[in-house]
Amino acid sequence: MLPAPQPLSQFYLSAYLNQLRQDGYSIFLVQGALPPVTLDEAGASVDAPGRCFTPEQEGNMVTLQSQQGNRSRSRSQSWGEEDEDIAKAIAASLEGIIELAIRLPNGARLMRRFNSGQPVSDVLEYVRYSCPEVGPKPVLSAQLPRRVLHDVRQKLRDAGLANREALTVQAPS
Predict the structure, then answer these.
(1) Where are the domains of the chain?
(2) Could you tell me which residue ranges the UBX domain spans (predicted)?
(3) d(CA 112, CA 82)
């Protein structure tokens, strides 16, 4: 992990945000003025939301962090227990999450994560939002075994959908 934030190019930021959108993440933009920055006697920011460092400052921070790490090794035994708790919390938060691959009538493919407790109607709503040309009542079907998901109130887990399941969307005939 880097000791300080790194500047991003416009191209990298754009490509990264596009990849996140394609992976099904929502991106929110917050606009407005940042709070005023207060400087201490040394001219360093006291309460700013972030700070950029020169390469020399980064090198000094890495040296300082390694020196502090040597002194705090005795505390690391208790951190192992915290790490286990964090891993358990992450696993519990991901329980019931399924990722669906959705093939649209135009051949495009969507990937999105859903909670297995969400209704089938949420998938259809996502499809209509992502591809308006499918119309108001697209037909959603699972691949293996092939079955049409008629009951839009049914939860995804009750419809038999599993993680990495492939679905196809057809415009109503």
Answers:
(1) 98-170
(2) 93-169
(3) 31
Range 68-94 average pLDDT: 62
Helix segments in the chain, DSSP class H? 10-22, 55-71, 76-94, 120-130
Distance CA 94, CA 98 (A): 9
Tens digits of per-residue pLDDT, 7-43?
778 888 888 888 888 888 887 777 777 666 565 555 5
**What class does CATH assign to 98-170?**
alpha beta
The model's pTM? 0.47
Q: State both tokens at 40.
A: 């201490």
pLDDT at 75 > cutoff 50: no
Write the DSSP symbol of residue 110.
E
Helices (runs of H) and strands (runs of E) counted in the chain: 4, 5
The residue behind tokens 């891993």 is 87
Tell whether the model's pLDDT for residue 104 goes beyond 80.
yes
